[in-house]
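Convert to structure. Protein one:
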Amino acid sequence: MEDGIQKWAELLNSSEYTLPHLTKPLRPFWISPDSSNPRPPVIDESTPFYAIVCLSASQRVQDGADRTLGFTYVQGSGDDHEMWSKGLTPDLFWRHKSELLACDQDDLEGSIVQILTDARNSDGAAILNPVKAVRGRIVVGTRAANHPMYLDDPDTCAILVLTSNPQQLEDHSSATTLYVREFYPKQHPIEFLTQTLPLSLQFIRTRLQLSTSRVYILCKDAKDLSVGIATAALALYFNESGEFIGDHSHSVTKDTAKRRLQWVLSSCPGANPSRATLKRVNEYLMSPRRPSLLERSAVVSPEEPS
């Protein structure tokens, strides 16, 4: 680990992220089930360091292997939050922190289920994050922002909405708005690669080739699907200077895809794309023969709106 720190620091410094100037050192605090460390101190402006709290659910025990002591790995304890969190996201946790921490262990799972149910039934917050590296021509946002009060003049923008609402998928698409079925890569990898992603990319490219100034990519929470599709569009249709080139025939490398993702994450601090989404996007981008579009009525005409 120590040998890799300098290399990782250099990679971070050469990335597309805007790095703040740190005026104090970073100090790690390691917390595990058998940790005897005190809780991290109260942090304020006078604290001479930035606290980095490192959590692990693994427990150090005798394992009977070649070494007498080691760490017993707890499946999903740290690397798969979707499993151990029961679907609870960081935003929902902090929003309901007092309620959750006051719960008895027996009631905790029921409280999480209720919180998730309420969140699904809510329209959520209207979020729009223009990608700065391309001067806002791509915007990542939530479906709750699909309203004239939040969007530009319809003559100068196009809207891509990722949804599972049958009525919207059948009736609401137009020359400047496209509703696409939101197949999530973890559950539906083939459908994502053959429908959600290519249909979205064709619409984005078509609209940016016209007089449209920007394309809004809207999903449920502006964290996963919209981030993956924006990354793919940036890798295929924009050069290193952030200029639209509309050429999707060139090869895309892992480094290119990573830097385009960094463009999106730098402008969308709340983004948290899943490993499945990033894996499928990379698979699509680096395939020598990218999956072709299915013939579907959801594809709109590339003509200018009247």
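Protein two, convert as well:
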Amino acid sequence: MGIVVPLTLLLIVGAVVSGVLLRRQAGMRTAASGLSGLDAEVEANRWVVRLGGSLAGLRPGADEVAAQALAEAAGRHHTARGQLATARTPAEYALARQTAVEGLQYVSAARSALGRASGPPGAESDTDAGDPTEGTARRLQRVDGRCGVTV
């Protein structure tokens, strides 16, 4: 009889710990992306680094449209880096990824305005699979003396 109470307590503690661990693992996955927290972080980081690399070699020269597109892309890069630094959940990492992809679309618009090839494939082809960034920032044009984005 003396061993029944400690054994019961041990079983209860084990059940609680198991429940907490299972719940924590389930919380690390998102239904929309299927990525764990670490996978989402790696994916977002990949896009932010890619955006930074795309910005590194581009200079707009005297082209105002390209300069505006590069300024927007640099702003997206700065924002995505900040989002990545503070992200803790897969949804927050997805937001950082989305911001970086938008920046890459601005880089593509700038390259187009400069008459260069659009760069390596990626942002456009990877966003076709139901990504919320689809159709964002495709082209820049001058409207009433100001640069604007056409979707």
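The longest helix spans residues 4-27. The chain has one domain: 34-150.
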